[in-house]
Task: inverse folding
């Protein structure tokens, strides 16, 4: 391949450009700079002959650059004349000669950074408001679907519920047990380490019991479920929406809320309390184990101390929160799933939003419950 | 990146009849589990032709296409593309071949998070080092060549109609000026006018760019108007290859019902005489 793709000989007013070599994609960068510099050096040329006899190969890249050269000379008032082009390449040149939009490419609408910052703040605030609206909407739709199902129980998708329960609860048991066990261990170890300085080792049992049963058991389980099941719900519903499956359901006279969302949310409402119970027990077990092995507190002492420090209330406070948090996770996951648009990117964005929002709302709910229980004195 | 590629010289002629064979499929067996989809298939595609590949739904037409481009593993046989045996290539050689073919997937397979313009520039950016101005101009040129105008260039695939998606996908398949284009049911889902225009487009591009086209299709009109040669897949084997006239004259019962069925009612053998 020769390095010079475009040679020039000037004869007064007449400019003669001679093309050579392969005018193909791989040489396009060099060819472009040679063409542009030739154009710049001969701005005032009146008559331009472009001899293409020496060009062995021409593809769209080379042909477009030739077209650009021809166009820029004609725009400058010159009359370019292309000769020696092989017959096969004529058609290609005709095709490219018909291209109109290339000179006036509109760049994608970019806005000023300050305006952009302000408008994105505004959009975000509005979208937070909107998402509360759509959560309320979805809650209403789910309740309506539930009432409708209650009037004709035979239409309830029992198989779907069982299938979802299997996914939500049964398959989550091992990981939930493992994580809560470790959390129980860590709390007990940290408690022992610090309480020992005051000689208050035995209060670790109180701390582990109350913390796990009231707060941590349900929180850890809900965070796990939001990450594990909430994201799956959003992705499932979202890809169904992308492939028009939800529209298909609707046209067949089914209510997607009743068919798809209600069984999923019910599965969560049943599954999360079970997981919370199992998780709390596992955390207590882990705490007890560390107290025994690391803190030297016998299992019998641990148990009797636990009996004194916690009442049924403590346990109930934790458990009562579970179904409400499950409802929040389910609703948020469904809202985000139904908000998916056509692209893969939007599926990813909604799934992220689903997990982040539901974990956030679970923690907010926990705070509201804490205030509520404190004010009723439990 | 571009410097590491070997210069793309035209493939050496090989195969029978002195014709330049760009895709040579020999004795290829493909199966999924127990089911054998392609049973010792042989097929040649010559340089510069438009080969229509037909067969019943689920007969394995797309499977053969996907096997040639390396998306489906084969059990036996060999495939040579542009004179290169695809089983014995290094990654670099494979990449060099992949740069010389373009594929139009059945549903377009446009990248949904990129705009039309970015979709068209994606393969070019990867393989070539071009100025942004040239990239933009070429994307528009390709877009206009497939019959769309520049206003579509900042749209996302989800904002396009089915026909536009096919056109953009074709433009993307042509982005690197490939020698071979694989088209998987290019006219399915288009209205007859759109499908006719698409056929003309393929014929024009094939002539101007000197493409070799491997087209999987069900569209009898496409077969009549653009295909130079037709290959028929039936029960895992290529039972017939040849021009339309040969297909219409064939005695094979499946071919008779395919080319002389209700859907081809308006056509007479005289139509086939026309180029």
Result:
């Amino acid at each position: 391949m020769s390095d010079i793709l475009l040679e020039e000989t000037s004869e007064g007013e007449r400019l003669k450009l001679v093309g050579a070599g392969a005018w193909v994609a791989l040489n396009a960068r060099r060819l472009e700079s040679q063409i542009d510099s030739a154009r710049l050096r001969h701005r005032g040329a009146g008559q331009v002959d472009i001899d293409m006899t020496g060009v062995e190969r021409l593809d769209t890249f080379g042909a477009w650059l030739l077209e650009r050269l021809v166009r820029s000379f004609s725009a400058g008032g010159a009359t370019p004349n292309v000769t020696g082009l092989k017959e096969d390449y004529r058609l290609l040149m005709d095709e490219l000669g018909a291209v109109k939009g290339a000179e006036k490419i509109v760049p994608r609408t970019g806005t000023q950074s300050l305006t952009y910052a302000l408008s994105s703040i505004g959009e975000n605030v509005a979208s937070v408001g909107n998402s509360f609206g759509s959560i309320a909407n979805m809650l209403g739709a789910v309740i309506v679907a539930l009432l409708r199902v209650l009037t004709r129980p035979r239409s309830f998708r029992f198989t779907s519920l069982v299938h979802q329960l299997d996914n939500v609860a049964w398959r989550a048991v091992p990981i939930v047990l493992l994580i809560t066990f470790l959390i129980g261990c860590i709390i007990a170890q940290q408690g022992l380490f610090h309480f020992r300085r005051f000689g208050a080792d035995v209060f670790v049992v109180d701390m582990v019991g109350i913390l796990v049963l009231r707060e941590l058991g349900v929180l850890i389980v809900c965070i796990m479920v939001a990450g594990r099941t909430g994201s799956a719900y959003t992705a499932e519903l979202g890809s169904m929406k992308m492939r028009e499956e939800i529209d298909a359901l609707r046209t067949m006279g089914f209510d997607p809320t009743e068919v798809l969302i209600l069984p999923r949310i019910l599965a969560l409402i049943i599954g999360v309390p079970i997981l919370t119970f199992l998780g709390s027990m596992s955390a207590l077990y882990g705490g007890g184990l560390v107290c025994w092995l690391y803190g030297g507190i016998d299992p019998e002492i641990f148990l009797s101390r636990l009996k004194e420090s916690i009442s049924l209330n403590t346990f109930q406070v934790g458990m009562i929160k579970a179904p409400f948090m499950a409802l929040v996770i389910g609703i948020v996951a469904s809202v985000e799933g139904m908000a998916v648009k056509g692209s893969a990117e939007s599926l990813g964005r909604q799934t992220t939003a689903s997990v982040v929002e539901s974990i956030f709302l679970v923690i907010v709910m926990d705070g509201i419950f804490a205030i509520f229980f404190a004010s009723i004195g439990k | 990146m571009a410097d590491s590629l070997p210069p793309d010289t035209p493939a050496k002629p090989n195969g029978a009849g002195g014709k330049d064979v760009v895709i040579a499929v020999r004795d290829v067996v493909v199966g999924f589990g127990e089911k054998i989809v392609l049973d010792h298939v042989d097929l040649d595609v010559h340089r510069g032709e438009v080969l229509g590949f037909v067969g019943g739904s689920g007969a394995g037409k797309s499977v053969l296409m996907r096997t040639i481009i390396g998306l489906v593993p084969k059990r036996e046989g060999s495939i040579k593309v542009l004179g290169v045996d695809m089983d014995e290539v290094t990654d670099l050689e494979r990449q060099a071949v992949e740069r010389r073919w373009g594929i139009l997937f059945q549903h377009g397979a446009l990248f949904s998070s990129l705009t039309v313009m970015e979709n068209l520039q994606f393969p070019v950016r990867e393989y070539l080092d071009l100025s942004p101005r040239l990239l933009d101009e070429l994307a528009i040129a390709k877009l206009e060549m497939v019959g769309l105008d520049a206003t579509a260039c900042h749209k996302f695939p989800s904002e396009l109609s089915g026909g536009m998606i096919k056109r953009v996908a074709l433009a993307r398949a042509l982005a690197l000026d490939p020698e071979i284009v694989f088209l998987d049911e290019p006219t399915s889902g288009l209205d007859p006018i759109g499908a006719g225009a698409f056929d003309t487009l393929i014929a024009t591009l094939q002539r101007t760019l000197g493409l070799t086209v491997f087209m999987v299709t069900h569209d009898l009109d496409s077969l009549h108007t653009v295909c130079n040669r037709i290959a028929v897949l039936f029960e895992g084997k290529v039972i017939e290859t040849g021009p339309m006239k040969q297909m219409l004259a064939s005695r094979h019962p499946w071919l008779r019902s395919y080319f002389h069925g209700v859907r081809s009612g308006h056509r007479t053998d005289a139509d086939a005489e026309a180029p």
